[in-house]
Amino acid sequence: MILRIDAESATPVYRQIVDGLRVALVKGDLAPGDSLPAVRRLALDIGVHFNTVAQAYRELAREGWLHISARGGAQVKERSMPVASKPEAATYRRRIEELIAQIQASGAAPSSLARELRRIAKALEGF
Amino acid sequence: MILRIDAESATPVYRQIVDGLRVALVKGDLAPGDSLPAVRRLALDIGVHFNTVAQAYRELAREGWLHISARGGAQVKERSMPVASKPEAATYRRRIEELIAQIQASGAAPSSLARELRRIAKALEGF
DNA sequence: TATACTGTACATATACAGTATACAGAGGTG
DNA sequence: CACCTCTGTATACTGTATATGTACAGTATA
User: Fold this and answer.
1) Which residues contact A105 (CB under 8 A, 6 or more apart)?
2) Which nucleotide is nearest, taking the CA of residue A48 and each C1'?
3) Mutation site, B2, B11, B124, B127, interface A, largest A CB count within 10 A
4) Predicted structure pTM score
């Protein structure tokens, strides 16, 4: 389980878990049918309380990614990608721009940043 | 002052203010020497307490964007872009991927998303 | 000095994050 | 069946973060 948690970060741990797992789910690294580690197991690995992991699992279940059961634990659902409303670009443009501005403000070179964005854009075309 | 606040959002208001202003600062819409609205004024406009705005201003001052004084209020500093350490792409790659995954999960079409990323990348080249 | 404007400081109410602990459900094994 | 062991859940509790109310201090101007 490749999942780095930054205890210093302002974003809460449970959301770091959600974010990290969601990336794996969207990319397909976690495929339908796959089992996730038990909450106590993952909690031990990343050094938090198991309830914090459980909260993250519940959030992903709420989003439709996981199916949680008493014995089987958390499993990736067959119907992975939720059937949400297709949002307009304007809806998420601001959020991307805010993140980019934040990264730029931290001193990242615009050219390097642009390269990274193109790389991700290219990867997206594969879908 | 174009600054939309979403009271429903999970991200706290003061950080929405910081994020929104930082975009304007990085883009240059807020240039060195410009004065920001008084805390009570902006607070009235967006419908929050002025202390919440003050907290946002202090955060941006801490980042080196603003100079705050008793009479002059908050002004954009000459030395806008902070002299931070140039972070490696790997440092922020994960954060971008997390945001993109989140947007994808909400149902955004990858092609539309890729187009948006390229647009931002192109804009970055201008710097 | 009086006034009117800036941002600041501090106490408070409330919500959120993380943990400890006890619990309930499901399946295996004596 | 009784028991054990594994799963996630529920509740209570502590500390932190957010937003506000109120009082204050600094600064320019009439």
Assistant:
1) B22, B25, B26, B63, B65, B81, B82, B84
2) C18
3) B124
4) 0.92
